[in-house]
Write a structure and sequence with these properties.
Length: 392
């Protein structure tokens, strides 16, 4: 038989067995628990001697369908779905550290991941160091005997800086440290960190994976022996995904490839046009030749992604006027939606950081982040360039 192993096909055609109704599309299993045929079967399932669903905090066929597809698409052995992206970040870290351990992380991280490392884990005696994404030698220098994990996001939010995954994969292997990559911005369609040796790959499925702004969700994917620990931790602490969300997200995956193709095409088109505009101070997009890590972006990302950042001449004040002048593009903190979204990170998502901390992760006061949606590119550009004119 043929393998039918192309990305698009796997995202659509993977299907757990059909029920007795012989449905074509995967059904939703809205049930909190599952029935045993006998007392002996119940005993054997609890003892994990035989597989099977017991209770939806542990597993549910709707969630299995989603997570098994995610594993196929990321090229990982196993995975665990969670209620949100942050639940995934937390359970991908917590099972692997104890008091006295150390985590090495990229300085630019999603705000709540930052809080886990700087506020929550230190209470339990787990320390951390931050390193600039593009200072690879510093990653090596900062490894300590008690370092258990390297945690990075690439591309970073919102500066769109990259880190060399091949380098970090080798470094982590040489020191027997787990490399954990938040692959939310790239999605499995653009980049597969496991290929470079990441033991854990985490996602907020809330973003491009759902892609339609409907649900929260997350995944931890990775090596079997690591996911077993994650699963144990999740089973007993309960950050489980709702079967309804698992069902939605497994349908979302069926269109991930076509959506990402269009997000990236629209984003590149917009980035190129911004680059030529006289009112734009600078623009950053991984697959623009002017990106300082363009070569790396071409090597490890299929396309440049759905986000573009730029700054208008006139900085912060001009940026605010620009945002207020937008008519179609939404002002909301989400990203990875069919609808284009504009954000001013310094006053919203990254307002908790000091000005100095923001500059250290590439967030200048006037930086605007656009999550480029799937509306017609002419309409996106019309709204955006008209707002630039109005903001003068
Ligand atoms: C949104 C986001 C998260 C958190 O995900 P939620 O689903 O909102 O909990 C984590 N990492 C990155 C990079 C994100 O963009």
């Amino acid at each position: 038989m043929a393998n039918f192993d192309k990305f698009e096909t796997r995202a659509i055609r993977k299907q757990t067995e059909r029920s007795q109704q012989k449905e074509h599309s995967v059904p939703i299993f809205a049930t909190s628990s599952f029935v045993f045929d006998s007392a002996e079967e119940a005993r054997a399932m609890f003892a994990e001697e035989i597989p099977g669903n017991i209770y939806s905090r542990y597993s549910n066929p709707s969630n299995d369908e989603f997570i098994e597809k995610m594993c196929l698409l990321e090229g990982t052995e196993d995975g665990m779905p969670t209620a949100s992206g942050m639940a995934s970040m937390f359970i991908s870290i917590a099972p692997f550290v104890k008091s006295g351990d150390h985590i090495l992380a990229a300085r630019s991280l999603f705000g709540s991941t930052h809080q886990i490392l700087t506020t929550i884990l230190p209470k339990w005696g787990v320390s951390h160091s931050y390193v600039d994404l593009n200072d690879l030698e510093e990653f090596e220098r900062q490894i300590k005997p008690n370092t258990k994990m390297i945690f990075v996001e690439t591309p970073s939010n919102p500066a769109l800086d990259l880190v060399d995954l091949e380098y970090l994969g080798k470094l982590a292997a040489a020191h027997d440290i787990i490399l954990n990559v938040d692959n939310c911005f790239a999605t499995p369609y653009l980049q597969n960190p496991a290929k470079y040796g990441a033991g854990l790959v985490t996602h907020s499925a809330t973003k491009f994976i759902d892609g339609q702004g409907r649900v929260l969700g997350g995944t931890v994917l990775g090596k079997k022996e690591l996911i077993e620990e994650v699963r144990f931790f999740a089973r007993h602490t309960g950050p489980s995904m709702s079967p309804f969300h698992g069902w939605i997200l497994s349908k979302s995956l069926e269109t991930l490839a076509v959506r990402m193709e269009k997000h990236c095409e629209n984003a590149l088109n917009l980035a190129e046009e911004l680059e030529g505009h006289s009112d734009v101070d600078w623009v950053k997009y991984p697959h623009l030749k002017s990106h300082p890590q363009y070569e790396l972006a071409i090597k490890q990302m299929r396309h440049g992604g759905g986000l573009v950042t730029f700054e208008l001449k006139g900085g912060l004040e001009r940026g605010r006027k620009f945002l207020d002048a937008l008519e179609m593009i939404s002002l909301t903190p989400n990203l990875g939606d069919t609808r284009s979204i504009a954000t001013h990170p310094a006053s919203t998502t990254h307002s908790k950081l000091t000005e100095e901390e923001r500059l250290a992760v590439g967030i200048s006061p006037g930086l605007i982040r656009v999550s480029v949606g799937l509306e017609h590119i002419d309409d996106i550009k019309e709204d955006l360039f008209r707002a630039i004119e109005v903001s003068k």
